[in-house]
Design a protein that fits this description.
Number of helices: 3
Radius of gyration: 26 Å
CATH class of one domain: Alpha Beta
Distance between the termini: 91 Å
CATH architecture of one domain: 2-Layer Sandwich
Length: 135
């Protein structure tokens, strides 16, 4: 009969698989966080100038209005109805922040159409993108 050892001395092992899992999880987490921090570049627009322009914190949505009246959000062209649906599906529209960027060549009617769509969706925090005078 073999002798039982209560204090059998085993050599410790480092398990590498759980460490790889944790490192991959951290990598994915930081990639997702970093992608959310990249601001929406939008379209190249000739923004109008304003002497009282203020720097606003980064909005949730930057809405670009093209000269033909099309609405571009996050590099995706959409209709007014699709834009309203997107804002309503975002969550609490009372806390949604929207900045409207329209070139100075855009007819005012298109600008008002986008602002009206924001109000229909329930968004009240609306900013207007401008350039400071001399900027």
């Amino acid at each position: 009969m073999s002798k039982l050892r209560y204090f059998e001395h085993r050599r410790g092992r480092i398990e590498i698989i759980p460490m790889i899992d944790v490192m991959l999880f951290l990598l994915v987490f930081f990639i997702i966080v970093t992608l959310q921090m990249i601001p929406d570049s939008g379209l190249a627009l000739q923004l109008p100038q304003a002497s009282q322009a203020e720097h606003l914190p980064h909005p949730q949505f930057t809405v670009n209005v093209a000269t033909d009246g099309s609405i571009v959000v996050k590099n995706e062209t959409m209709t007014v109805d699709a834009f309203i649906a997107m804002l309503q599906n975002d969550g609490d529209t009372a806390k949604t922040q929207v900045t409207i960027a329209a070139s100075k060549d855009v007819p005012f009617e298109f600008f008002v159409r986008v602002m009206d769509a924001c109000r229909k969706a329930g968004v009240s925090d609306i900013g207007i993108a401008t350039q400071p005078v001399g900027g």
